[in-house]
Predict the structure.
Amino acid sequence: MQFEHNHHPVTQALDNIVSAVQLSFNQCQSDVYWLSVDFRMLIAATGVKHTEAHKAAVYIVDSLVEQLKPNESLLISSFYFSFPHSKVFSPYKSEVQTCFWCNVVSPISAT
């Protein structure tokens, strides 16, 4: 994956993130891994331009998924910040508001 701005430092930072997360997953030795992280802050710390943040999020998730064995699953927490105002939340219909790639998958999916 190519980033238009600061390609090498951004890619290196993303790879460091993936390596750190992967190391913690390896230490857990589980079939289900739960990743609860503020993607906005994590990606901002890499130096990637905001116009390429979606690409960076996809890079992180794809890199982690590629490391999974066929019987393993990766769960990523999502957040719905509108609840305090709307008082309505549906795990099936409420939009994920935690990261830039949110609308790629539904909040709950069976894989």
Q: What stands out?
A: The longest strand covers residues 32-35. DSSP finds four helices and two strands in the chain.
